[in-house]
Amino acid sequence: MLTLVFLLRRRPELAADEFHRYWRERHAPLVAGCAATLGITRYTQLHSLDAPLGEALRASRGCEPNEYDGVALVTFDSVDTLVAAASTPEGREAGARLLEDERRFLDLERCVIWLADDVPIVEG
């Protein structure tokens, strides 16, 4: 299992509620519509919460303050599946549509993205 991990920061001119609404209501359906073309088996949005408990947990561990608005987890069966899907004309077109939309709400230069080997430890 392969997971693309995308740490998200919103464009500076967007308020947090605007960002979360756009990501959930506009971008998520776009990803869902491209999922089969791109070989996506799961797409999860983790929306940051501004909660006192989060601050307390960070402080208890000496962690840095949270500068991210959310995390997107995009799962594929394998690297080969992702590469094969992205190599087709339809896959390239779907990827271009997603990137075009990401530019509307993400500060891409301040985002972080990497691929991870997904190793479930606790499930259910």
Fold-level CATH name = Alpha-Beta Plaits
Strand order of the largest sheet: 2-3-1-4
Main sheet overview: 4 strands, antiparallel
By CATH, the architecture is named 2-Layer Sandwich
Structure description:
- With 124 residues, this protein is an alpha+beta fold.
- The protein has a single domain (2-49, 66-117), classed as Alpha-Beta Plaits (2-Layer Sandwich), CATH 3.30.70.
- It is built from four helices and four strands; from the N terminus they run βαβαβααβ.
- The protein has helices spanning 16-38, 52-61, 79-86, 89-105; strands at residues 2-8, 40-47, 70-76, 112-117.
- Strands 2-3-1-4 form a four-stranded antiparallel β-sheet.
- Helix 1 runs antiparallel to helix 4.
Per-chain topology:
Blueprint: E1 2-8, H1 16-38, E2 40-47, H2 52-61, E3 70-76, H3 79-86, H4 89-105, E4 112-117
Antiparallel strand pairs: 1-3, 1-4, 2-3
